[in-house]
Amino acid sequence: MTALNRVPSLMARAGTASALTIAAVGGSIVVPGMASDAAAATTATKALQIAASKKGAPYKWGASGPRRFDCSGLTLYSFKKAGKSLPRTAAQQYNKTHHVSSGHRRAGDLVFFHSGSNVYHVGIYAGKGKIWHAPKSGDVVRLQKIWTKSVWYGRVG
To answer: Which of 33, 68, 90, 127 is the most buried (most CB within 10 A)?
Structure first.
């Protein structure tokens, strides 16, 4: 039995399944009439999985993988591997995304940390208030709770 064939039985046992659960078993997300959103969700889910696969990779300013990353290097690398191109810096990436409210954020959206109008950090939203990111020098790629309300969300189209 393939992983995709197991999705219905997994959903039946659990009652519901999150997009990450479906993706983890090799499934895909399809919403009738929403082909572009479904494609975006698939790309975002892939990018999220790629970022998560880099857990423990060391932070290095200016690095965009595959072994070391800075914050925007991790998002650039993850989305590139998932089939979408992004510009290099966090601020440039913010300007290239479709901005969404916190109430409409989804796993795989980019989370932009800002001070006033200055974007200074980016990560990939993992759900439940957490992001995958490359925090700072001396740290590693990791999953972390969002620590401030000074964030904006962007969806890669």
So the answer is: 90
- What's the pLDDT tens digit per position in 43-82? 999 999 999 999 999 999 999 999 999 999 999 999 999 9
The model carries a pTM of 0.76
Predicted local distance difference test score (pLDDT) of residue 39: 72
**DSSP 8-class letter at 112:** E
Is 114 part of the annotated catalytic residue set?
no
71 is known as an active-site residue: yes
Beta bridge partners of 121: 113
DSSP 56: T
Report the length, in residues, of the chain: 157
Contact 145, 129 (CB under 8 A): yes
Which entry of 71, 98, 99, 114 is annotated as an active-site residue? 71
Distance CA 92, CA 88 (A): 7
| Greater model confidence, 19 or 103 | 103
Residue 54, Cβ density class (10 Å: 0-12 exposed, 13-18 middle, ≥19 buried):
buried
